[in-house]
């Protein structure tokens, strides 16, 4: 009797393999990307591990609902252009999300293989697909696009605004994007360090958007350089994508001392300096002791940026344990590898110094019977610091002119919209739509992209409906 060979499953025989990384010693010497790209063989091997589940939890857990099993299968078959086209059907910027999404909390966290065998490396493959496509000159097919006669102003060139502009342009709308920064991307460019998201990636996407007909008006702040009411006269509809970029204060004595920085102020200045923009000299942190307050992705960006500025030491203070930190696991791991020292179960209660900050007073935190954190008496501890960066997150920062346009806000300063309305993401002013962090509060880039896409689709229906009613 002929023996039958046991069936070999690729997800068993081929283990999860993440992209190679530069050594910690090498990467803190410059701002280059930490991760090396997959080779075609590596990408095909890892994509071939996908089970192609009948009910793909990975796609459901993705905020833009990417066709993940579909483009994994195409990569495994070597059909990279088809994979890129499929990836772009749901996400205008796969090259961004592949790099900065916290996949362990989203698609990879939902992967059926996650328990025991290791999730498919979805994020790294998404980046590979997009990078190879763009290297080979990929462009969206605009051959069938006809002008629809409508004009939209997008205020804010961050992820929500750019996603909205992309969808509108693909549907024949004339789109103008206004932003206060000198480059597009918003905090993709000016808030996320080069070692996580290379600025050439955003410049490349700008070129594509301009080829699609999108016009950018940069160094232009609505409310200062442009009257928003004039925009309503000149355009059929407006989209607001200004984000939530007001840093939360620590609310402790000494916060006004010299060399105490808000995280975003530090990151923006650092990137302006990296880009060589005039008036922004690099921070001189050589041989300085840095203390970062916070445990999210922004705190990790500050930690790792400070190391690249040759800080003598970087201490990251967080009020709970390492596993409680909201930052992406891979970013925390990278920070540890690069030399960041984590000080957990401690809370900063005072910044000490005369004119300049000299130290941080910390106390231990413990959970009480109800599970709430409280300070432990007699546990004060002094941590020396030459500079302190506060990374406690962001609040809404709505411009005053929203009130003049009859746009209603919540008690937290967020713009009121509804995803269940006839025209989702429409504000109290029917000609103004909004999405991203202005609606969500500070959240993930991919969620801002998802809302920008959905808002654009809603705006197209609204403008079509208005045309019919005329």
UniProtKB/TrEMBL annotation:
GO MF entries: 4 iron, 4 sulfur cluster binding; metal ion binding; oxidoreductase activity
Residue ranges, annotated region (Disordered): 1-24
Gene3D superfamilies assigned: Alpha-helical ferredoxin (1.10.1060.10), FAD/NAD(P)-binding domain (3.50.50.60)
Pfam families: Fer4_20, Pyr_redox_2
Claim: Iron-sulfur is one of the keywords in the record: yes
Keyword check for Cell cycle: no
Protein's recorded name: Glutamate synthase small subunit
Originating species: Legionella quinlivanii
């Amino acid at each position: 009797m002929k023996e039958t060979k046991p069936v070999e499953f690729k997800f068993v025989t081929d283990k999860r393999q993440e992209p190679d990384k530069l050594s910690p010693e090498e990467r803190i010497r410059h701002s280059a990307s930490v991760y090396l790209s997959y080779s075609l063989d590596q990408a095909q091997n890892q994509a071939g591990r996908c089970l192609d589940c009948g009910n793909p939890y990975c796609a459901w857990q993705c905020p833009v609902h990417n066709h993940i099993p579909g483009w994994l299968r195409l990569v495994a078959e070597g059909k990279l252009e088809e994979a890129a086209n499929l990836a772009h059907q749901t996400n205008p910027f796969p090259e961004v999300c592949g790099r900065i999404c916290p996949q362990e909390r989203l698609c990879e966290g939902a992967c059926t293989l996650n328990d025991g065998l290791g999730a498919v490396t979805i994020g790294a493959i998404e980046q590979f697909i997009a990078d190879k496509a763009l290297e080979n000159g990929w462009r969206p097919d605009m051959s069938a696009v006809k002008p629809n006669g409508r004009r939209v102003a997008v205020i804010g060139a961050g992820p929500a605004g750019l996603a909205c502009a992309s969808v509108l342009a693909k549907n024949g709308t004339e789109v103008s994007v206004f932003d206060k920064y000198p480059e597009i991307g918003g905090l993709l460019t000016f808030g996320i360090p080069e070692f996580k998201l290379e600025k050439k990636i955003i410049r490349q996407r700008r070129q594509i958007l301009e080829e699609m007909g999108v016009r950018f008006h940069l160094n232009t702040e609505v409310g200062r350089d442009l009257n928003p009411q004039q925009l309503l006269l000149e355009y059929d509809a407006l989209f607001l994508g200004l984000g939530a970029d007001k840093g939360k204060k620590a609310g402790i004595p000494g916060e006004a001392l010299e060399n105490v920085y808000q995280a975003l102020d530090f990151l923006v200045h650092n990137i302006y300096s990296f880009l060589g923009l005039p008036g922004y000299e690099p921070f001189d942190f050589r041989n300085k002791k840095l203390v970062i307050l916070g445990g999210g992705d922004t705190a990790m960006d500050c930690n790792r940026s400070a190391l690249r500025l040759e800080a003598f030491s970087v201490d990251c203070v967080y009020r709970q344990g390492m596993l409680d930190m909201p930052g992406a696991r891979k970013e925390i791991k990278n920070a540890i590898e690069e030399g960041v020292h984590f000080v957990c179960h401690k809370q900063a209660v005072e910044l000490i110094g005369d004119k300049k900050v000299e130290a941080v007073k910390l106390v231990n935190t413990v959970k009480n019977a109800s599970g709430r954190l409280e300070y432990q008496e007699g546990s004060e501890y002094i941590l020396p610091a030459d500079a302190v960066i506060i990374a406690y997150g962001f609040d809404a920062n709505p411009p005053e002119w929203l009130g003049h346009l009859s746009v209603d806000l919540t008690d937290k300063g967020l713009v009121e919209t509804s995803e269940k309305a006839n025209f989702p993401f429409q504000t109290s002013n029917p000609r103004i739509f909004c999405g991203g962090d202005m609606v969500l509060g500070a959240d993930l880039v991919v969620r801002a992209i998802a809302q920008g896409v959905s808002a654009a689709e809603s705006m197209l229906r609204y403008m079509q409906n208005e045309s019919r009613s005329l």
